[in-house]
Amino acid sequence: MNRRTAGDLALTEVGIGAAQFGNLYRETTDEASTAAVDAAWVAGVRYFDTAPHYGLGLSERRLGDALQGKPRDEFVISTKVGRLLVPNPGGEGAFDGDFLVPATTRREWDLSRDGIRRSLHDSLERLGLDRVDVLYLHDPDEHEQQALSEALPAMIELRDEGVVKAVGAGMNQSAMLARFAERLDIDIVMLAGRYTLLEQGALDDLLPAAQANGVSVVAAAIYNSGLLATARIRPDAHYNYGAVPRELLERTGRIAELCDDFGITIPDAAVAFPLRHPAVASVVIGTRTERHVSEAAARHRTEVPEEFWSTLVQHGLLDERAEVAHHG
C-alpha cells in the first residue's frame, strides 16, 4: 500500500481506527480484534489509531495485544491524550455509555503537562509498547485556551525530547484545528467527518492552514456515521450519529446514482475522495472485524474514474475547490 509523509513519518494511505475494539455500541472479542489487525497487515496497512477513551482503555489493550510480534519499526501507531482514566468506585455494575464495558474507571479531563505525560505513560502500559509514534490531543472543544497554552506545548516538548515523533490534535471540527496549525509547531491533525464525500467545510479553514504550515491531515469518519458505508443507502442510516436530514439523504441518493453510472460504489468514492487533497496523508477507517478490513482495503484498491469527480462538481454535488486543490 502506498505511503504518504507526515512530518518524519510515512503513513499508509489507509489506517485502521480501533474505536470498535473498545466495544463501541456492541461487544466484540479479543480474537476478532486480532483477526482484524492481522487482515490489515496482510492488506498492507501499517497505521493504527486508538485512544484511552475507546472502551476505557480496552481498545488500547486489544490493539497492543494484536500488534505483539509485528516488527515495531514497520508500523505507525497513534493514541490520544487529554482525559485520564481514574478509579470509579461503584461503577462495576454499569456500562460506560456507548462503550459496552464496565464503568470501573471514568474519564477526567487533565490538560496539564503532568496530565499529558501521565496519560501517555498509562497508554503505553495498556498497549504493551515502549513508544507510540503520534500523539493527538483528543476533542479539546471546550478547552481551547488550555490546549494552546499548556497541553499542546507539553506534547511538543515530548516530541522535541524524542519520546514521540509527531503531535497534534484530533477533533470533529475543522476551525479549531486550523487555529492550532496556524499558532503552534504541530505536525499532524486528525479531522473526523468534516472532509468527506458529503462535507467539504474544511476547505474554508483547516486544509489551507495545514498546507501553509506544513501540517498533515488524517481524515477519519469518512463514512459520516455510516451513511456512506454501503452501496445502497440504508433506510436506518445515520449521519453525525443521528437521523439523516431529508436534503442530505436526497443528495446522497444522487451521488449513488452517479456512482452506478461509473461502475463504482459510494463507499469506494468515500475512501478515495479525501486522499485527493495534497494535505491529506491517510484515511482512517473504523473496523471491528476481518471482513470490515477486507472491504476497506478493496475499496481503496478500486480505481475511481477521474471524470467521476468532475461530474460531481458539474452537478453541484462536490465543492469545486476540492478539485482545484487536487490539480494544484
Descriptive key words:
328 residues; alpha/beta; TIM Barrel; 8-stranded parallel beta barrel; two-stranded antiparallel sheet; 11 helices; Aldo/keto reductase
Topology at a glance:
Layout: E1 3-6, E2 9-12, E3 14-17, H1 30-43, E4 47-49, H2 58-67, E5 76-81, E6 83-87, E7 95-96, E8 99-102, E9 105-109, H3 113-127, E10 134-138, H4 144-160, E11 166-171, H5 175-183, E12 188-192, H6 206-213, E13 216-220, H7 246-261, H8 266-272, E14 280-286, H9 290-301, H10 306-314, H11 320-327
Helix pairs in contact: 1-2, 1-9, 5-6, 8-9
Could you provide a short overview of the structure?
By secondary structure, this protein is of the alpha/beta class. 38% of the residues lie in helices and 20% in strands.
Report on this structure.
The chain is an alpha/beta fold. The protein has one domain (3-243, 268-304): NADP-dependent oxidoreductase domain (TIM Barrel). The chain is built from eleven helices and 14 strands. It has helices at 30-43, 58-67, 113-127, 144-160, 175-183, 206-213, 246-261, 266-272, 290-301, 306-314, 320-327; strands at residues 3-6, 9-12, 14-17, 47-49, 76-81, 83-87, 95-96, 99-102, 105-109, 134-138, 166-171, 188-192, 216-220, 280-286. Strand 3, helix 1 (30-43) and strand 4 (47-49) form a beta-alpha-beta unit. Helix 1 packs parallel to helix 9 (290-301) and helix 8 crosses helix 9. The chain is globular and about 55 Å long. The protein starts with a strand and ends with a helix. The mean pLDDT is 96. This is Aldo/keto reductase.
